[in-house]
Write the structure tokens for this entry.
Amino acid sequence: MLMAVRNQIKVIFLSIKYALMRELLNKTTFLSNVIFMVLNNSSMIIQWLILFSIRDNFGDYGLKQVILLIGLSSSIYGFAHFFFEKSFKLSETINTGKLDAYIVQPKNILLSTITSDIQVSALGDLLFGLIVYLFYGFSFPSFILYYIFTMTGGLILVCISVIFHSLSFWFNNADLGADTINNMMINVSTYPDSIFKGAVKWLLFTIIPVGIANYIPVKIITSFNPYLFIINISVCLLFIVITFIIFYKGLRRYSSSNLMSARI
Amino acid sequence: MAIIEVKKLSKNFKVKLKEKGFKGSIKSIFKPKHKIVKAVKNISFNVEKGEIVAFIGPNGAGKSTTIKMLTSILFPDKGSIKVLGLNPMQDRKKLAYEIGTVFGQKEQLWTHLTPYDNFKFFGAIYDIPDAAVERKIEELKVLFELDDFINTPVRNLSLGQRIRCEIVASLIHNPKILFLDEPTIGLDPVVKENIRSLIKRMNKEYKTTIFLTSHDVGDIEKLCKRVIIINNGQIVLDDSMENLKYHYLNKKIVEAKMKEKINLDDEDGITILKDKGYNLKIEVDTTKRSVADAIKLLNPDNIIDINISNIPLEDIISNIYKNKD
């Protein structure tokens, strides 16, 4: 069992390494993708600096908390899209029959599929997240927590994407719904939860779980709460279990395809 | 001992129907209609260890669906499958270590990487230690003559070279069975021939059982000792290549463009299919007369261009049906 896990991890990292090798073939594009993503994300900080010049706080969020939220959201996005890029394009993989290549391999189908590509600009998001965190203020415990939540948040983001994209096993064009949910997750993740009320807030802690992935971690990093920490980890694990159940349930309905395709 | 056992296997697909035009698109939103396509209907067969079996049929006959069920890709609706004693649906990972697959229409290789890097990646997928992978690559490099392009990115290879690399990648883990789904599709005759001889050599060297789907009669003629023909999801023939040749592949089509008109009539072993003066199409029954004899009759000096081909698979199938009736 342990050997199987070790071998699976080895293949995942090899897959990421090869995808990175492909991107590095064109150094200029690679570097510009990363740098422009850092610059693009910096505009969010400027926006909030202007807003905080008008008001001192937004709900219970001061400037420092907002900066932490933006940094964490950027890291979460970067982690999810760098390591699991294909989870955001899973419908296409299912609809065009490209899952075949992963099914015939003696590895976990879902993990092999979603880790088979990277998004280079996500490295820019990860870098930006690190810079913003250092700007927020380094301490060893908060640094550890920051990256634990980067992973749990990233995994939740990936799970939501896989769950909605897996609906492609049942419906045509499920990718539209999945993309909408993914975009909503990203769009609201850089705004403090205190500005959302009622049904929207409920949504943010359930179907679009930005609350669990982003807001709760900011609260824990600023003031550690073991209860919230356990909730965050447990919900992340729950999402992983649900994701695997739904994907493998759908896989039984997989109809493959004979479309010509290449692995690029 | 049967290495593949298929019993009463069936697979249906639900296909959405849409009436033509924009109106049809709107209608299909509110009143979606579906039809059930029976891709594979209650088929049974066994494959013995070391055999090269051709599983052939026209497009849409159910070849790929069957091969996909044998390799765990598709779940069957009914029936049972045992490949090396394993159930492809329940023992997917175990089975994957024992089989290799090549889909002519789909690339499994990373196109930006060299074949060598790809083979190393496949070695990792099958948990093979680095030294063993190196040894295997070296061995297959010689067998498949990859020396000239093993360090060229796959995207820069010709289709024939790529298919060779796809086959090598599927052999890295010494599979007991190799499933080849139309491996010669889109290849020119010379490359096709080359791939066929490599497949034959591989079967000889490693005793690999080969299950090959194709709609190219040439593939089966050159490679296989046994043929299973599938049409409309049903097996219409499961016989030895020898019998198939004797009963159904005993005819060749000769199309010739002549310098001068010749007068040729139907005679023993020769049937005139088309005679447009300078263009002639004849069917030669090779059990009665050799193709060389037929060409002599046409007078080789009088021939500008000539094409010799097998009778189309569709004709063989209709002949099989006729003989059954």
Observations:
- The mean pLDDT of chain A is 91.
- Chain A touches chain B through 33 residues (CB under 8 Å).
- Residues 14-251 of chain A form one domain.
